[in-house]
Q: What sequence folds into this?
């Protein structure tokens, strides 16, 4: 079946502009995660959605970052007033659910964001 | 939150030799211990995971061992091959604890297989 998809694959923007990044998880997956990965660095957790529970926003680096999820489907990560330090690959992942054998995270291809 | 450390940050081994990467964590409630592999320019993919009721799990050339007392788990790759060259991440978690699950990845270990 189809895996996690993200769009756009690449985004170049000017400092100060807002950007929206989209993630389509695997159908039926109740959990969705957003990560940031700077060049040559590890995965930095941003936000986590699990079903209808309140999202875990503990990883968002500033109030310029926000994310929404429509039910158990598509999610949008919004970065307002982008800064050069926001340049990174933004990865989305989904997993079937909480607990049991369903913990594997399936990653999308990422969106490479470049802020000029 | 969980403090996660991986060692070494870079590991270079001769093709055919074994490689071991260690992950230490701080939250004693962690009960799920996965390893992800990320090849250059690609997305991370789960290669092996273990739960806290098991001390070791093996899948062909890769294995994971867990020491809950010492709060560390390790990835073992035997008979290394060029396609094993990648960055490996550990991501210990508390699953089903009632609160938000911890989601901290290690900083990664760059494994280089020398021909």
A:
């Amino acid at each position: 079946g189809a895996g996690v998809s993200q769009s756009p694959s690449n985004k170049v923007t000017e400092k100060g502009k807002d950007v929206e990044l989209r993630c389509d998880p695997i159908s039926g997956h109740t959990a969705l995660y957003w990560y940031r990965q700077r060049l040559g660095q590890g995965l930095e957790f941003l936000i986590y959605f699990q079903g209808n529970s309140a999202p875990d926003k503990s990883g968002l680096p500033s109030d310029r970052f926000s994310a929404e999820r429509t039910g158990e489907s598509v999610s949008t990560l919004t970065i307002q007033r982008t800064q050069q330090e926001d340049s990174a690959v933004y990865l989305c992942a989904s997993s079937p659910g909480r607990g049991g054998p369903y913990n594997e995270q399936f990653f999308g291809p990422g969106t490479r964001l470049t802020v000029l | 939150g969980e403090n996660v450390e991986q060692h070494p940050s870079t590991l270079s081994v001769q093709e055919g030799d074994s490689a071991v990467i260690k992950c230490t964590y701080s939250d004693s409630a962690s009960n799920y211990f996965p390893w992800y592999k990320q090849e250059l320019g690609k997305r991370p993919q789960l290669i092996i995971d273990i739960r806290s009721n098991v001390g070791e799990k093996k899948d062909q050339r890769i294995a994971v061992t867990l020491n809950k007392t010492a709060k560390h788990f390790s990835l073992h790759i035997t008979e290394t091959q060029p396609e094993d060259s990648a960055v490996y991440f550990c991501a210990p978690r508390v699953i089903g604890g009632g609160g938000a699950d911890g989601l901290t990845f290690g900083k990664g270990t760059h494994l280089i297989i020398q021909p």
Notes: The beta strands of chain B are 4-7, 10-14, 19-25, 32-38, 45-51, 56-59, 62-67, 72-77, 86-90, 109-114.
